[in-house]
Amino acid sequence: MTKVRNRRTAAAAALLAAGLLITGCTTSAPQAGAAATLGDSRITEQQLTDQVQAILVAQRQPVDTPNAQLTAQTLSRMISLELVNKLAITHGVVITQGDIDQQLSQFDQQAGGRDQVLKIFAEQGVAPNQINAVVRLDLQAQQLGVKLDPHGSAEQQGAALVNEVAKLSKDLGVEASPRFGTWDPLSLQITPGGSDLTAPPALAK
User: Fold this and answer.
1) 183 vs 11: CA distance, rounded Å
2) Which of 151, 149, 172 minimizes the C-alpha distance to 160?
3) What CA–CA distance (Å, rounded) separates 47 from 68?
4) CA angle, 166 then 203 then 198, to 5°
5) DSSP one-letter code for 33
6) Which residues are within 8 A (CB) of 105 and not within 5 positions of it... i.e. 6 or more apart?
């Protein structure tokens, strides 16, 4: 594991190990043009395409490269960012830009500079313009774990966080477009489908 990843607490690591995806089941299909819906909110296919293409650029791959696993991973993270942010608001967890900058500064010291940090994140499927959001997610996860299980171990706090996000996803009726795969509420992961439809429209041409 990289030094950057080793900095994550058990609470954040538990969420990341779950595929950065918390799912719920509904009987309705996602709204037209939506990669996923979370209650009244939605993640559009264009937003997903933009993020996948940014990652491909960071990895120095052609932006029209179909990659079902990367697409599923990216959509998983986008959903998790929404859900964890909702929980953070509910529980009064506030992460400032200063907090994010401080964490990134620590990453710089551990990895040997910002260029190396960018490389590590790119290898993990995170583009430069997505790093702040991922760091915010990690910091929110740390604080939420403590709030949800103040006297538990780090591992117990991580489990409490995953359970809480899973409950929220079910309450909101999180649903993904079938073109991107299948939600598994038990493992909290999205499994990519088996065709080129698992790529966003701009990548499936």
Assistant:
1) 22
2) 149
3) 16
4) 40
5) T
6) none
Question: Are 117 and 73 spatial neighbours (Cβ–Cβ below 8 Å)?
Answer: no
Instruction: Enumerate domains of the chain plus CATH numbers.
Output: 3-199 (1.10.4030)
Instruction: With beta carbons less than 8 A apart as the criterion, state whether 31 and 37 touch.
Output: yes
What is the phi/psi pair of residue 188, to 5°? 60, 45
| Full pLDDT tens readout for the chain, 205 residues | 444 444 344 444 444 444 332 222 233 444 558 999 888 899 999 999 999 999 999 999 999 888 888 998 998 899 889 999 999 999 999 999 999 999 999 999 999 999 999 999 999 999 999 999 999 999 999 999 999 999 999 999 999 999 998 899 889 888 888 888 866 655 666 776 644 444 544 454 4
| 87-94, Cβ contacts within 8 angstroms, sequence gap of 24 or more | 87/140, 87/144, 87/164, 87/165, 87/168, 88/140, 88/143, 88/144, 91/144, 91/147, 91/148, 93/140, 93/143, 93/144, 93/147
CA nearest to 66, candidates 201, 181, 199, 205: 199
Token pair, residue 72, equals 């599923």
